[in-house]
Design brief:
By secondary structure, this protein is α/β, with parallel strands linked by helices. The chain is built from 12 helices and 8 strands. Strands 1-2-3-4-5-6-7-8 form an 8-stranded parallel β-barrel, surrounded by 7 helices.
């Protein structure tokens, strides 16, 4: 599990924006070959992508390339540019069926073999952004062991429904759509990234920072593990929300250790916390997931050149 609290995007043809993203504390950069690149610049974007992936230091930031969907006819061109250059993840846009993923898996495997790269190292990050994609989400996310993450494309989903995204605090507009993706992703055993926090010009959105924080907390409570950003000012806010809480980690460790000791010794007192809260299998499983996230956070800090802070 590679923890990615934030995903900051940049058009693959915009090397200046890519440099600015690499100066932030984002956990993952999404180099976009799709929506943020107009058709006349697709070729330039692939050329810039090769130069950037091959020659730049990403300082431990996960390298994700968003490729054009199969309907575009450009997916293989995008993959042939990205795979030989050491990309960590491929994000498939406009994904609607499990066969879309199986086809992508086959294409990535063929390129790994052709370029004599380590096998099965490139992960798949699935963009769910249409009604059909959401309907088929579990089957899509279960279609390949390469799939490690599901991304909710709120803007394109809204467009597909003929509506505008609602930024009203506490809106219920996408509760079902986002909730379904969280459930399907958990059933498939993959992480979940929610939509970009705000798609607007800086300063155009009143109370921007407070909105991003509260909305991100809401998404975390729904079960999401990370979210997207296009502005550096949002990265630290999102990271703070999704960073494992030390007190929660300590309690989780206690739950796991007491449960294990209780099973080994048969001591009934081991199945209760100090405050009298009973320990049951559901709490144990949640505690194990929290500890897994804490270990992933330690690995994230090491990858970025820092020191682990959690004792897991």
């Amino acid at each position: 599990m590679r923890l990615k609290r934030t995903q900051m995007s940049a058009a693959a043809c915009d090397s200046d924006k890519i440099r600015r993203v690499l100066d932030t504390d984002t956990d993952m950069i999404m180099l976009d070959l799709e929506d943020n690149v107009i058709p006349p610049l697709k070729g330039k974007a692939r050329d810039t992508l090769v130069k950037v992936l091959s020659g730049w230091d990403f300082h431990g930031i996960i390298k994700c390339v968003k490729v054009n969907g199969w309907e575009s006819g450009m997916t293989l061109l995008d993959l042939e540019a990205a795979i030989p250059c050491g990309v960590d993840e491929i994000k498939l846009s406009k994904c609607e069926t499990a066969e879309d993923i199986r086809r992508l898996d086959r294409a990535v495997t063929e390129l790994e073999e052709r370029y004599r790269l380590p096998q099965n190292q490139v992960e798949i990050n699935v963009q769910i952004e249409s009604p059909m994609g959401l309907r088929n989400a579990f089957e899509i996310l279960s279609a390949s062991p390469r799939v490690t993450c599901a991304s909710f494309g709120y803007e394109d989903m809204a467009s597909a429904l003929g509506i505008f995204r609602d930024y009203t605090p506490g809106t219920q507009q996408a509760v079902y759509m986002a909730g379904k993706l969280v459930l399907d992703a958990n059933a498939a055993g993959v992480q979940q990234i929610n939509a970009t926090a705000i798609v607007a010009r800086p300063g155009e959105f009143p109370g921007e920072a407070d909105y991003v924080r509260k909305d991100t907390v809401r998404l975390k409570q729904m079960g999401f593990t990370s979210r997207g950003a296009i502005y550096a000012s949002h990265v630290d806010i999102i990271n703070q929300v999704f960073t494992p809480d030390p007190e929660e980690i300590a309690v989780s460790r206690q739950i796991v250790e007491r449960w294990r000791t209780g099973l080994e010794t048969g001591d009934p007192d081991c199945f209760f916390l100090d405050n009298g809260l009973p320990i049951d299998p559901g709490r144990v499983e949640r505690a194990k997931r929290i500890l897994q996230t804490a270990r992933a956070y330690d690995e994230l800090l090491l990858r970025k050149g820092g020191q682990p802070q959690q004792r897991t």
